[in-house]
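Co-fold these.
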Amino acid sequence: MLDYSQYTANEFALDASFRKWVLKNTPTESIFWENWLAQHPEKHETIQQAKAIIVALRNVQEEIGEEEIAAAIAKIVDVAEQRNIKKVNFWRNSFFQKISLAASVLLVTLLSYVVFEKLSEKETPTYSNSVAKIAQKTKFIEIKNTSSTSQLITLSDGSSVVLQADSKLSYPEKFTGNTREVVLSGEAFFEIAKNPNQPFFVYANEVVAKVLGTSFTIKAFEDEKQVQVFVKTGKVSVFSQKNVTLKEQQVSKVLTGLLVLPNQQATFIRPKWQFKRAELTAPQIIALPVIQSQSFIFKNKSVLEVFDILENAYGIKIEYDKTLMASCELTAELGDEPLAEKIKLICEVLEAKYEMKDGKIVIEGKGCN
Amino acid sequence: MEPKNDYIALWKSFQEGDSKALGHLANHHYKVLFNYATKFTKDRELIKDCIQDLFLFLWDHREKLQSSPFVTIYLLKSLRNNLFKKLNQEKRNASDDLDIDLPFTEGISPESELIELEMFYENESKLKSLLTSLPKRQQEVIFLKFYEGLSIEEIAEVMDMNRQSVSNLLHRAILNLKSNWFLAAQLFYVLYLKA
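Predicted complex below.
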């Protein structure tokens, strides 16, 4: 035990246990300090002084009143209640009811599984099946990202795909015909080059996403119970691979099906073959790759910083002369253009040349004055 | 501080989906989270949104949680991370006042910086303006130490720094406060005499 008898008021104020007593009045600390004080009555004044220091330092850091807190809490409880699915009732049932319910759910699941298997003896839309189906037409490339960082892929139409860890993407060397089709397993962020005449399709497990030119993330891991689509800009139409209108969708040049808009998400519940659409919540955005929420609007921003943001968002390396470019500033409103397009626009402003090669971008410019 | 048993009961009802329990737990931690967040931004609505998101995130994942996440350090740390992500811009500014970690003066134990704090409690409004004039990270460390009463180890955990850097930062913050306090006092004295 520390020897507190020589402590000054400052030292008490800086002592963790003492602060805990004053601020929190925790049982252990209050027993200790009340006893200590009883044994050291001569320290009464010093202790009062130390307490006053701590209280002053706390008081000046109070920024919110009880009423405002109460209103904020009421709002939280309100939203939580809306989200509270019927689970509450279920758990309130007795143990017996739970068992019988569980048993019947199991039985129904088993039965429907058997029936379902019989009915759909054909392939389930997994990654490899989708690849097999689509890759008949042209030569496909498969990129597997086994690293722990993201990997940038540039497609033949200029579209960017930021492939996340443990994910793979199959895509044709060149897009031909009326559609652009790729197959994803895992998670990736897409920025699709605009071409209304050649709609872009992503096959991700049971889900198909169709776009004309936008940016979005798809999360479709084989071992997860859901497939999710998060839209950053533009519109994405989603439907399941079993959808009878799939054929029509492939020819149609407009977006139908379930439309997902910016800051919305569509979740496909795999066991139910059902879509749900909802607004994106902050924790979800946080869980997504940086690029999903990264703004590319720059106002008098140092080029060094701009390149930093791009490197970070796309997980690529940009090589350029830092001392030469240090004085350059950029004002540009970039959006969901693929990376190559963004670099092109930036280089036009900077009167610089660029080259994209093996996962890095080399920029050569004259600098700015 | 609530008795431990009450807390366990509250946590249990929370996990079973009782929104009132969520309200109680949120109420218990709201003030410290809010006051802490003001060290990073003055945007009160943004702070409230972030705190709401944090509690709703726990609510949405309540069934998967192994143990109670309603631990101040954990909540502070999560809120700090979320805020930083939202305030990407501000984060850059904050790194501006990333004071360089000076080597720690030998012979002084981190818990006993011999700095006179007595003057602080005499004039709260002056203290407040001095505090807000400190670099953001120094304000943060003062808050964690003197508002929430955390130990150096706990502060290190929340701020993602090592113990030594926290000590240095705290030391500088208190020195800063003190020297400014004297400046302010001297200025006041001079003005007062001349008037």
